[in-house]
TrEMBL record:
<dbReference type="Pfam" id="PF13614">
    <property type="entry name" value="AAA_31"/>
</dbReference>
<feature type="domain" description="AAA">
    <location>
        <begin position="140"/>
        <end position="330"/>
    </location>
</feature>
<protein>
    <submittedName>
        <fullName>AAA family ATPase</fullName>
    </submittedName>
</protein>
<dbReference type="InterPro" id="IPR050678">
    <property type="entry name" value="DNA_Partitioning_ATPase"/>
</dbReference>
<dbReference type="InterPro" id="IPR025669">
    <property type="entry name" value="AAA_dom"/>
</dbReference>
<dbReference type="InterPro" id="IPR027417">
    <property type="entry name" value="P-loop_NTPase"/>
</dbReference>
Length: 468
């Protein structure tokens, strides 16, 4: 017969014998609405303190320097000895700086890009010094989305943007999440919604309304008035909201809390003008303002919800990446996310195509060049079986590469920076190499998608030209 073992008082769970009077004495006064403002202000001060780490004397984020070892291992595929010979033979090229006489040379990313261009023009033709992008094709837009938070969405988007920049691409990052985490990573300064993507959406609606008003006038009807918001937006272009970052080849359209107002304003506009194609707003404005020609890759960080901002980001995207963890709850949530995507975009197509059929116009059909789910924060020892099961069900939709969780991810996050911004001298070399390796592999899997899609379009254009 089993018997209960005696327990010492100290072995009791912590939720036993709590004294109610002592608990009351620990309480603060009830919180009012004003209390939220005090908490928010404290968080703002703390956020500013954390964000100040890594800022230069003028209060701006500054990208670290890159050593000869890093450049020749990760950025320009040449032997260190050959790299040094090229610099000695070409004194007009950046020569780097050293902390000590005869010590390792360090270069800014601007200088690395100049060196890459030189090797691309003068180096061996068998090596890919310069990143591939077919002439005449626009930038590729990449949305990173999932409506479950904590899946590594912003981190994945930020590190892919940094990877592409290190690879030599010109990158634009668009933050559509009013929490502004991506904006913080890139040191963006966003005073209000007029420095976010909101004016681009408002201008698109304003142009639609202006066109409708002209048609009203042609019919002898009174036009709808343009309010101050729309009038101001009609004077703005993407150049007014794009800001440089501390990365020389990464620009940013930032976000802040007021951007969330768009989730309330867009449905008001949509109700007032049912013919306004809100899902085309971001794409049309980026194209009209020449953004798709000035950049190679555009990463869109979406909110963790399927609202109007997310719909704009997803509809604009050529490639959709969906980060998720290897857990049942995240797998289940991601399945529901894809189900909601189907319902949302199918509903838009059905509504538009009913009108198109009645008017004899071409129908609407959304299409993405590629859709990939990506497992993030992966622990092979604990999650291997579940990841394999997910792979079996999702097939090619799930990238076979798993983005491992390493200590470097957490350490870099504490510094409000990305792994590629971290100086490897601040970490254990093995930890740095392992942390960088998993993000390099994530970028490699993405780059295969990007290059394959560009090549497919390049060949299609060539076939069309030959047929013509």
């Amino acid at each position: 017969m089993a018997r209960d073992l005696p327990q010492a008082p100290s072995a009791l769970p912590p939720y036993f014998n709590i004294d109610a009077d002592a608990a009351q004495a620990e309480l603060e006064a009830p919180t009012s609405t004003a209390g939220f403002a005090r908490i928010a202000e404290a968080c703002a001060r703390g956020r500013a303190d954390l964000a100040s780490r890594g800022l230069d004397a003028e209060g701006r984020k500054q990208l670290r320097l890159f050593s000869t070892w890093e450049i020749t291992r990760y950025l320009i595929p040449v032997a260190q000895a050959h790299f040094r010979r090229v610099l000695r033979a070409n004194p007009d090229l950046p020569q780097g700086v050293s902390d000590t006489e005869g010590g390792a040379k360090w270069f800014s990313l601007d200088e690395v890009l100049r060196l890459r261009a030189f090797f691309g023009a003068q180096g061996a033709k068998s090596k890919n010094y310069l990143p591939y992008r077919p002439k005449g094709l626009p930038a590729k837009l990449v949305a990173v989305a999932n409506f479950k938070g904590g899946v590594g969405k912003t981190s994945t988007a930020a590190h892919l943007a940094m990877s592409a920049a290190l690879d030599g691409y010109k990158v634009l990052v668009i933050d559509l999440d009013s929490q502004g985490s991506m904006t913080s990573i890139f040191g963006g300064q966003v005073a209000d919604e007029w420095k976010t993507a909101f004016p681009l959406l408002a201008r698109h609606y304003g142009e639609h309304l202006r066109g409708e008003n002209q048609r009203r006038l042609d019919r002898g009807e009174a036009p709808q008035p343009l309010d101050e918001t729309l009038a101001a937006a009609l004077e703005m272009t993407a150049a007014d909201v794009i800001q440089p970052t501390h990365w020389p080849n990464i620009d940013l359209i930032g976000a802040q809390l007021n951007l969330y107002w768009a989730e309330f304003q867009i449905p008001v506009w949509r109700m007032a003008a049912r013919g306004w194609r809100l899902w085309d707003a971001l794409t049309d404005r980026l194209e009209a303002d020449g953004v798709l020609d000035r950049y190679d890759v555009i990463f869109i960080d979406t909110p963790p919800a399927l609202g109007y901002l997310t719909i704009n980001g997803l509809a604009a995207a050529d490639i959709l990446l969906v980060p998720l963890g290897a857990s049942f709850l995240e797998f289940d949530s991601t399945g529901r996310f894809f189900d909601m995507l189907h319902s949302t975009f199918h509903s838009i197509e059905e509504g538009e195509n009913m009108a198109a059929r009645a008017l004899g116009r071409p129908g609407l059909a959304f299409e993405w060049d590629a859709v990939r789910a990506v497992i993030t924060r992966y622990d092979g020892a604990q999650q291997g079986e579940l990841a394999a099961l997910m792979q079996a069900y999702l097939g090619r939709t799930l990238s076979p590469h798993r983005q491992d969780f390493t200590a470097l991810i957490g350490q870099a996050g504490e510094q409000v920076s990305g792994i590629y911004e971290a100086d490897y001298r601040d970490f254990n070399r093995e930890t740095y190499a392992r942390g960088r390796e998993t993000f390099d592999a994530t970028y490699a899997a993405f780059k295969r998608l990007l290059l394959g899609i560009w090549r497919r379009e390049e060949r299609a254009a060539q076939d069309t030209e030959l047929a013509g």
